[in-house]
Amino acid sequence: MAKVLLQPIGSGREAALDSATYEAQTATMTAREQRFVDARAVVADGWGDTGRARVHRKGKLTTWERLDRLKDDDAPLLPVGTFVNFGLEFGDRKQTSPGAGVVTTFTRVHGRWVMVIANDNTVASGSWWPRTPEKIERAQEMARKLRVPVLYLVDCSGLFLPEQANTFPGAKGAGHIFKMNALLSAEGVPQIAGVFGDCIAGGGYMPLISDKVYMTEIAYMVIAGAALIKGAKSQAMTSHGIGGADVHVGISGCADFRVPDDPHCIDAMRREVATLPTSAVPYYRYGLSADQPRFAPTELTGLLPADHRVAYDMKEVIARLVDSSLFWEVLPNIGREVITGIARISGLYVGILANASGLIDDPDTPGAKKPSGILYKQGIAKLAAFSRACNDDGIPLLWLQDISGFDIGPEAEAHGLLGYGSSLIYTNSTNTAPMATILLRKASGAGYYAMSGLPYDPVLQLSTPVTRLSVMEGRTLAIGAFNTKLDDEFNIVSDDPEERAKIEAGMKAVEARIEADMDPMASARQMDTDEIVLVDELRQRLVAWAEMTYQSPGGRRIKNPRIWSLHDLQVLTGS
């Protein structure tokens, strides 16, 4: 019988990095992180005290108060899409939409992980702004792939009409939310909705395909509000009168249950979750316990250099993310620019595919070194083979990116990197095992794609405050843009002082623009990444992800570890 033999990995902080360097890197990373800590507070504040007072005057709880009552006492709130629309202003009044006016977050209810989609009722009465539909749909897609229940806390006055042209049409416009409702239902993913307030147009449609729909006494759901009907048909009425709980629970059947108020509605939703099957996580631990890493995840703040040009030991990072800091490295002797292997997170097996950092031996030139953080032929083939085997065995895949791209040049083309890269991309595109991707620092060029970047549909992609997502670095791009003006050493060839100054200014402008584009906040604002997390929060996020991938029994094939394809791969390669 083959066994999964995990070996200790990593070393104590003092052995991993000298104290002076560790303290300096900690200070730099902490300073970079503070910006995002402050931004989180801005988003959570919504439209501030004024918005909260308006909600309370209506006898309702704010969205964050509802979430606090909904979750288990010991459960975290793990939002995704926090910074969507961050810093943007809309219309002549320059209004903001913190978090695009909706909170999408993972949490636990009665011990089960759920996705909660909750309109922020302090922001324009929960209206849908540009990117609000896409944010909701991304959360629904995460729940669909993980097969975790979706809880809708609906308090939505429909589209924010001044921006309707940027919200209503398009393939991922507001109407696509309802298609996602239907797909979740068709695939048996539980959906439970609580209707808490003004649910107009799309806000009224959103809960209807849910398995259970609760309405409070002050809530209403209407295709069109009373004001619009008065204008169109000259009829006097109220929105509550035409679409309240009396109508939709008592007559139309569009809702199932009526409850007095917000607290009763949330408690009822919790009871519904309690009736669902319990988590399969203990079953899939195979008798193992959920252990903490031997080395504190908080040490990652100092072990991961904020400067993308500074090398570090990726295995020290892995050691602070996985249970007991134990790891089975698979195919260790080939393609050393990448690290592949098996670990446990919360007692559950996951496959890890990571970029190494620093210099590695060049297998083609004895005694020579070459940089890692770049994909060469052996590494690409290694990633593809390992990824395929994990997918075949039903093992979730965790990608740890810190990559500059593919090898380039005549030798790379002769080695057929295009073909090997296509094989890896095919693998990532057709895998069905849940994948998560963390962009630790660099996420550059086609390497970002090959290491399962967001275009390849990982369930979750996380960035850190020092992530740099781009085709290439700003300086490199500036050289490419002004290549005809430079010699082979990238020096400006002109002797004309005025022309030289113009070229220098142009190159600096290009470099500055690209550097701004690589800001992780820019990626999060436009949904090019799911969430920016602090480095010492990565372990908590991965625990949640791992547990969710195993929570739903029968949702996918998960092989007994005795019959993994990985054992065969190990034997055949002699690793």
What tags apply to this protein structure?
575 residues, 2-enoyl-CoA Hydratase, Chain A, domain 1, 3 domains, 9-stranded mixed sheet, 7-stranded mixed sheet, 39% helix
Q: Can you put this structure into words, describing what you see?
A:
- With 575 residues, the chain is an alpha/beta fold.
- The chain contains 23 helices and 22 strands.
- β11 (326-329) and β12 form a beta hairpin.
- The radius of gyration is 26 Å and the shape is globular.
- The model is unreliable at 228-234 (pLDDT under 50).
Q: What is CATH's topology name of the largest domain? A: 2-enoyl-CoA Hydratase, Chain A, domain 1
Provide the CATH architecture of the largest domain: Alpha-Beta Complex
Taking all Cα atoms into account, the compactness measure Rg is: 26 Å
Estimate the mean pLDDT confidence: 89
* Beta-strand fraction estimate: 15-25%
Determine and state the CATH class of the largest domain.
Alpha Beta
In whole angstroms, how far apart are the ends?
Answer: 18 Å
Main sheet characteristics: 9 strands, mixed
The gist of it:
The protein has about 575 residues and is α/β, with parallel strands linked by helices.
